[in-house]
Known about the structure:
Layout: H1 2-17, E1 21-29, E2 39-44, E3 53-56, E4 62-67, E5 73-79, E6 86-91, E7 96-99, E8 102-104, E9 117-118, E10 132-133, E11 135-136, E12 142-147, E13 152-156
Amino acid sequence: MKRTIYFLILFFISANLMAEIRISGVVKSATGVTLENADVLVYTAITSTEPVVATNTDKDGNYEMVLPDTTIQFWIAFATPNYSGLKFPIILFADESYVIDANISPLYFANLSDSIFIIGDFNNFDMSKNAIAMTKLENGIYSAKIPNAKILLDIKY
Length: 157
């Protein structure tokens, strides 16, 4: 009897360890253009600081990932440069496959100010007195020189 219970417990533990969740889909812009190298991140609902799984989309905007966890509550996030990020909660069950497609909107900079300043760890993120002003060049690119103890950075936007 003890052996039977032992084997049943061992079976349930091993079955739970092999449980996985598959997620796939495609990431597109709001206009339907597929987004290459977009980030797809999955976080647990409890500790959403570090992703459980992260991947990038291929040239056709497709992604696929496997979650080894049997937790059911997650957050999924989609992000790529020059687009608004998208993050929402999802509930997923073990040994299931899900298709989650995302359409994300581009960022629009209609009235970009000529007063652009840079803050960072080089000036302790101080927006008041230590922010470094960027200057607009003739070709429309903004430029700034940021002092650093070891090197001088030249940033252009």
